[in-house]
Design goal:
This protein is α/β, with parallel strands linked by helices. The protein has a domain of about 150 residues: P-loop containing nucleotide triphosphate hydrolases (Rossmann fold, 3-Layer(aba) Sandwich), CATH 3.40.50.300. The protein has six helices and nine strands; from the N terminus they run E-E-E-H-E-E-H-E-H-H-H-E-H-E-E. The protein is globular.
């Protein structure tokens, strides 16, 4: 199925991270991190424990900085929290929240937050990922792969400026990996918003930027 018509046109995006600080009770993760990201695909790399998932959650507004700021096209992740989050989506690998909802209810809840979502693109991707029949199943009863496909189907149908994906290929079968690689390649080529992802697997999509947290000032050793 052809999905090129569902890829958003080139979008001018600027993510500004200034003096970012974030701490867990036992350690500091970021102590003054500065970053600039734009449209295209950014591959976020680094050793285990360097803060890759934490940074994605901070960029998505799921965590609040202890210091510094994160801005998306001028919108501050804390001061303009609602507007900011309506332009972002974090696709993670954790167990599902709201696991008592059915998959259909889970989708409807998220779609209510993104009124410009492309419903035809969503249905197309649910079909391509072979999960069009899970709408009545509880989210908590889905397998890891099914839940990842549900998140990705939604994320790839949203008109986002910033898409954040943590280990997108974990739990996916070979056919789903191929579908996702093709979709990411189209978006990267079109520079349709900013995509930031982590992956321990080598990407078959040429990233616009490779960002190594091991080499960044503001990330404690």
């Amino acid at each position: 199925m052809e999905l090129d018509k569902n890829v958003q046109p080139r979008t001018e995006v600027e993510i500004e991270v200034d003096a970012l600080a974030f701490h867990f009770k036992t350690r500091s993760v970021f102590t003054g991190l500065d970053l600039r990201l734009g449209a295209g695909l950014t591959w976020l790399r680094g050793r285990n424990g360097r803060g890759k998932t934490t940074l994605l959650k901070l960029l998505g507004g799921a965590l609040a900085p202890a210091g510094g700021s994160i801005r998306l096209n001028g919108m501050d992740s804390r001061r303009d929290a609602l507007a900011y989050r309506r332009h972002t989506f974090y696709c993670g690998g954790e167990a599902p929240q709201l696991d008592w909802l059915t998959a259909g209810e889970w989708l409807d809840l998220h779609l209510s937050l993104y009124p410009q979502a492309d419903l035809a693109a969503l249905q197309a991707r649910l079909g391509l990922f072979h999960i069009a029949d899970v709408a009545r199943q509880p989210v908590g009863g889905l397998s890891l792969g099914q839940y990842k496909k549900l998140q990705l189907s939604l994320a790839l149908a949203l008109p986002l400026q910033l898409l954040l994906i943590d280990e997108p290929f974990n739990g996916l079968d070979a056919q789903a990996v191929e579908v996702l690689q093709q979709d990411l390649a189209r978006r990267a080529a079109a520079r349709a918003g900013c995509i930031v992802l982590t992956s321990h697997l080598a990407l078959r999509v040429a990233p616009t930027v490779t960002l190594d947290l091991d080499a960044q000032p503001g990330v404690p050793l």
